[in-house]
Automatic annotation (TrEMBL):
InterPro entries: Trigger_fact/SurA_dom_sf. This is Lipoprotein. Residues 1-22 form the signal peptide. Residues 199-208 have a biased composition (Low complexity). The keyword Signal applies. It comes from Kribbella sindirgiensis. It comes from the Bacteria.
Length: 208
């Protein structure tokens, strides 16, 4: 998978934790960013579409992480009056975000993966411009993107993000799958499943 996608923080471990809906969400909602809702259905549709385009599994957590980041960037961009043109998005999507020309074509073929790619591109542009850059073709674009991430996190600190516990918890500008929603530790059921899996793996290694 593209290192550029990793740089945007959209690739996460596939740790599924149990739990109900966190305060601020309702059944069917994966996350709330301010007054904007991301539905579980949209997350599932996006993860399946992106996975199909990339030819590999793309977890729901990875999709949701990107979707929340994209929404935060969009809201901060509006607050800061940062303009992003369709031409800039198309350029960044093809030349800075898509893993390869072939992947770009496949991502463009499905409406769900195309929307996700375009929003990732818009997020990258907003991030660079927050740091005073002009776009992806800046000589110091990579440095501006890194500086922009800090600026984006600072600007988004007052935007409330609530994630349904089954996906994890939003913390420090990313989706943390090590904890479930507002819970400070994993549930007993999750702990039992993890322990059983670890013991089974150890037994297999011993037999080998």
């Amino acid at each position: 998978m593209s290192t550029r996608l990793r740089a945007l923080g959209v690739v996460l471990a596939t740790v599924l934790l149990t739990g109900g809906c966190a305060a601020g969400t309702h059944p069917g909602a994966a996350a709330m960013i301010g007054d904007t809702e991301i539905s579980i259905g949209d997350v599932d549709k996006t993860s399946r579409a992106v996975g199909a385009a990339l030819g590999e599994s793309y977890p729901d957590q990875a999709a949701l992480n990107g979707m929340v980041s994209n929404e935060l960037a969009a809201q901060v961009g509006r607050q800061k009056a940062i303009s992003v043109s369709d031409a800039e998005i198309a350029d960044a999507a093809k030349n800075a975000v898509a893993p390869s020309p072939e992947a770009y074509q496949k991502l463009q073929a499905d409406p769900a993966s195309r929307a996700f790619l375009d929003k990732l591109a818009a997020t990258l542009i907003v991030t660079i411009k927050l740091a005073g850059g002009k776009g992806i073709h800046d000589a110091d674009g990579q440095q501006k993107a890194q500086e922009g991430v800090q600026a984006l996190n600072a600007a988004a600190k007052d935007i409330k993000v609530t994630v349904a516990p089954r996906f994890g918890q939003w913390s420090d500008g990313r989706l943390d799958t090590a904890i479930s929603g507002s819970l400070s530790k994993e549930s007993d059921q999750t702990a039992a499943k993890r322990k059983a899996a670890e013991e089974a793996q150890q037994q297999q290694q011993g037999q080998g």
